[in-house]
């Protein structure tokens, strides 16, 4: 079993993922996953009429203006000769990076009076060094106390490496202060790069405060809000009240499903980031487009932004209104959710997300895809929860957590989303861990057109069932399990609930010594299905 220590190098994520997944290359994995999506009965997004939408758009505040939420199309991944996955728009990002590099003057923050002794307030020195932008500011090794840094256009802030160059919030900085952010939220900023440093939010300064954050996207280590063309490379964030790294709008939008905040960020790349002690999430995105997150490691949240025992603190969270998000070779450990793609009930869901490579170790819910408030039969069907392709995933030993005391662990949950492909998924359990008669994978709550392909599971000896497709009035539909291998795992191999119209199992082999191999209350279509070792290999009792 893999253990990810605090010192884990995120650039080793890809090597570890390759050891546990079956695809020989990223190219093979993403090509097959995209093909599965193309061959699936694609559900086209539907927009329900809402007579109040136009009126609401007229009276909403500037930053909360409603904007019709359309679903961006899935585009084909680009894979380099080195087998590195890149977004379809990566060429544009590369060009803009070159523009940034050739339009900055190199300066050193110590030239402007910075001391870096961990005691002196160096805020003014940073302000002078940054000037009005078009600067690459070198920050030598040391600990720099600041009250917050705002980046103007065409700025590069470069340290000497994680743990060597440390920016730390001043003891007198208010709880809502962001350590680094862009200069102008209204007009927006562009061409920003932060690299090679540690960001310390200095949580000790707030003492035993009941809550570590204030509101919105305040209280974070680094926030890009209304930024176009932004990069953060090789940066560590420590103990933020809210988020380690945030791609966002200045203000969130809760005007309903289909509404979206204005002043979004776009064309942002995070690479080589590490974060811990976060009050809410490690990396999070809101209402922004064309985002790339790669080779990052988020672990061990504090959960202090929430009430005790109710901390939905995720390693990486693709949240409300995010579109066209790409994730490559990331890792999470000991979080509530490893990777969560979601939305709140009164906001638009994140949509059009591609994941190639994610290692989840000891997270409570390794992979959690949901649109809150759109799960029950009596809830409105989500207009925006569409289009997720994920491949080369590893979920090792999901477990209970004090972060969210009454929640049940899962390796994967899909709720409310349509058009979902999970391909090359390795799920590893501890045979001695008590899962308290819970399922390991759940497809549920009005999820539709969901494909699980090339799934390998073992070790969940004390779980009730390995894979459960929930039925009933809140159930999933149009689910396909293809090339699934389960061995020496839960008491039930696969459970299919009642009243599911379309469910198909192809090339499925399950082996165990439990009670039932396939327990079906609907009528699945079976093609090359084998169950061995169970007391009852197949039990079917279709609902009336």
End-to-end distance: 44 Å
CATH superfamily of one domain: Single-stranded right-handed beta-helix, Pectin lyase-like
Can you give the helix content as a percent range? under 10%
CATH topology of one domain: Pectate Lyase C-like
CATH architecture of one domain: 3 Solenoid
Protein name: Pectate lyase
InterPro entries: Pectin_lyas_fold, Pectin_lyase_fold/virulence, RHGA/B-epi-like_pectate_lyase
Keywords: Lyase
Pfam family, one: Pect-lyase_RHGA_epim
List the helices and strands and how they pair.
Elements (H helix, E strand, L loop, with lengths): L12 H8 L5 H14 L13 H7 L18 E2 L5 E2 L3 H12 L3 E4 L8 E5 L1 H8 L4 E4 L3 E5 L2 E3 L3 E4 L6 E5 L10 E3 L6 E12 L21 E4 L1 E12 L6 E4 L17 E6 L2 E3 L6 E3 L3 E6 L2 E3 L14 E5 L4 E11 L3 E7 L7 E11 L3 E7 L14 E11 L13 E6 L2 E11 L10 E6 L3 E11 L6 E5 L7 E11 L4 E5 L6 E9 L4 E5 L4 E8 L3 E5 L4
Parallel strand pairs: 3-5, 4-6, 5-8, 6-9, 7-10, 8-11, 9-11, 10-12, 11-13, 12-14, 13-15, 13-16, 14-17, 15-18, 16-19, 17-20, 18-21, 19-21, 20-22, 21-23, 22-24, 23-25, 24-26, 25-27, 26-28, 27-29, 28-30, 29-31, 30-32, 31-33, 32-34, 33-35, 34-36
Antiparallel strand pairs: 1-2
């Amino acid at each position: 079993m893999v253990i990810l220590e605090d010192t884990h190098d995120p650039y080793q994520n890809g090597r570890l993922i390759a050891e546990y997944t079956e695809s020989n290359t990223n190219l093979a994995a993403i090509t097959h996953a995209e093909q599965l999506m193309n061959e699936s009965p694609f559900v086209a997004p539907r927009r329900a009429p809402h007579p109040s939408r136009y009126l609401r758009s007229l009276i909403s505040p500037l930053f909360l203006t409603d904007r019709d939420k359309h679903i961006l199309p899935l585009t084909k991944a680009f894979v380099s000769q080195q087998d590195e996955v890149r977004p379809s728009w990566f060429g544009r990002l590369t060009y803009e990076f070159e523009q940034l590099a050739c339009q900055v003057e190199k300066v050193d923050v110590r030239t402007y009076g910075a001391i870096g002794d961990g005691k002196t307030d160096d805020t003014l020195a940073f302000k002078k060094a940054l000037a009005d932008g078009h600067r690459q500011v070198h920050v030598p090794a040391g600990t720099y106390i600041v009250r917050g840094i705002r980046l103007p256009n065409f700025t590069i802030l470069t340290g000497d490496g994680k743990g060597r160059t440390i920016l730390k919030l001043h003891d007198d900085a208010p709880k809502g202060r962001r350590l680094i952010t862009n200069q102008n939220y209204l007009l927006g900023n562009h061409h920003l790069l932060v690299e090679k440093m540690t960001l310390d939010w200095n949580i000790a300064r707030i003492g035993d405060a009941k809550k570590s954050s204030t509101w919105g996207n305040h209280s974070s280590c680094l926030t890009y809000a209304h930024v176009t063309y932004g990069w953060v490379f090789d940066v560590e964030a420590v103990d933020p009240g809210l988020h380690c790294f945030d791609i966002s709008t200045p203000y969130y939008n809760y005007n309903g499903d289909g509404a979206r905040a204005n002043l979004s960020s776009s064309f942002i790349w995070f690479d080589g980031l590490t974060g811990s002690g976060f009050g809410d999430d490690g990396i999070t995105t809101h209402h922004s487009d064309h985002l790339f997150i790669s080779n990052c490691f988020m672990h061990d949240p504090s959960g202090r932004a929430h009430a005790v025992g109710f901390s939905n603190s995720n390693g990486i969270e693709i949240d409300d209104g995010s579109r066209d998000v790409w994730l490559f070779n990331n890792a999470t450990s000991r979080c509530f959710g490893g990777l969560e793609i979601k939305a709140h009930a009164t906001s638009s869901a994140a949509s059009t997300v591609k994941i190639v490579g994610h290692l989840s170790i000891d997270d409570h819910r390794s992979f959690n895809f949901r649109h809150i408030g759109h799960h029950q039969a009596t809830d409105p069907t989500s207009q925006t929860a569409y289009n997720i392709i994920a491949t080369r995933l590893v979920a090792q030993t999901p477990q209970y957590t004090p972060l969210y005391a009454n929640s049940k662990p899962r390796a994967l949950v899909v709720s409310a989303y349509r058009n979902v492909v999970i391909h090359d998924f390795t799920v590893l359990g501890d045979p001695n861990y008590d899962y308290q008669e819970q399922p390991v994978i759940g497809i549920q709550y009005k999820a539709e057109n969901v494909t699980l392909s090339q799934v390998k599971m073992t070790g969940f000896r004390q779980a009730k069932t390995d894979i459960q497709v929930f039925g009933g009035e809140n159930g999933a539909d149009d689910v396909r399990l293809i090339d699934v291998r389960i061995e020496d795992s839960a008491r039930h191999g696969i459970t299919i609930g009642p009243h599911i119209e379309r469910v198909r199992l192809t090339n499925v082999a399950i082996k165990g010594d439990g009670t039932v191999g396939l327990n079906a209350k609907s009528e699945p279509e079976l093609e090359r299905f084998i169950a061995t070792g169970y007391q009852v290999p197949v039990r079917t009792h279709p609902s009336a």
